[in-house]
Amino acid sequence: MHVIHIRIIVDDDDSKIWSLYDAGPRSIRCPLIFLPPVSGTADVFFQQILALTGWGYRVIALQYPVYWDHLEFCDGFRKLLDHLQLDKVHLFGASLGGFLAQKFAEYTHKSPRVHSLILCNAFMDPMMADAIDFMVDRIHLLQFHGTKYAAIDPSVVSAEELEVQKSRLSLSQEEP
């Protein structure tokens, strides 16, 4: 296995250096990119790099420079993908890396660069919490796709969710 360690500057600020390990076939144009937690670096994914490249995957483990807001990070990450000539990627984000992966997917939603998103111990933007109720209903409806229940009325899904919440509340009130 051949693992390349690269240091790349993509911003005008020469102090912002991306450090990465790139392993696996370069012919794969949609690699899996690992974004580490705040307490980790690119090398925390060493075992995953070994296993996945052994199965023929291209894997890139990143150590991102310090950015003081997520928009600046997203712009820098987009520039990095451009530099690496990667149009689409699979992102695996752990903790802060998961938050940044979500923000990048959101940042590029009009011209999607994220093919898939894998989150591990990630958190989300509190502003996104408002969309959760809508997404829960939508997920419930998607579970019925292709079944005789496919034409289910969305209000029934909301009513079902209400019943689930009520039963949880009554169970928690029964506990001493």
From TrEMBL:
<dbReference type="InterPro" id="IPR026151">
    <property type="entry name" value="Maspardin"/>
</dbReference>
<comment type="subunit">
    <text>Interacts with CD4. Interacts with ALDH16A1.</text>
</comment>
<dbReference type="GO" id="GO:0005829">
    <property type="term" value="C:cytosol"/>
</dbReference>
<dbReference type="InterPro" id="IPR000073">
    <property type="entry name" value="AB_hydrolase_1"/>
</dbReference>
<protein>
    <recommendedName>
        <fullName>Maspardin</fullName>
    </recommendedName>
</protein>
<keyword id="KW-0963">Cytoplasm</keyword>
<dbReference type="InterPro" id="IPR029058">
    <property type="entry name" value="AB_hydrolase_fold"/>
</dbReference>
<dbReference type="GO" id="GO:0030140">
    <property type="term" value="C:trans-Golgi network transport vesicle"/>
</dbReference>
<comment type="function">
    <text>May play a role as a negative regulatory factor in CD4-dependent T-cell activation.</text>
</comment>
<feature type="domain" description="AB hydrolase-1">
    <location>
        <begin position="73"/>
        <end position="162"/>
    </location>
</feature>
<dbReference type="GO" id="GO:0042609">
    <property type="term" value="F:CD4 receptor binding"/>
</dbReference>
<comment type="similarity">
    <text>Belongs to the AB hydrolase superfamily.</text>
</comment>
<dbReference type="Pfam" id="PF00561">
    <property type="entry name" value="Abhydrolase_1"/>
</dbReference>
